[in-house]
Please model this.
Amino acid sequence: MLFERCDDTLFSEVFILVKVAKNVGGHMYVKIDKELSEVVILTGHLRIVGIIHTLPQERLTDFMADSTTLYLPVTNASVYNLSDGSLIAKTNFLSLNRNDVGVIIPASEIVE
Model:
């Protein structure tokens, strides 16, 4: 058993959010459940429509302010030319430099 006893309240609260997957090849892997949010991202020349993966109940503002990584992972992404709207690429994954993001909007908040 990985954890037999834990009296630390903070640790117990964190452990609720984290599920230990399994021991693979002598290494323990941790799985963190994430929420999927469809977003529209605008850079200087691109419009990117895709999915970001946030922690449960994490605000988009907090997700973007996370300074632990310079790159923003986006899945199921469609990349469009901002000036003429033409589709440039579709990809299962892209990594976008956070400094290039001008605007990020939850797709559910867009009013047409």
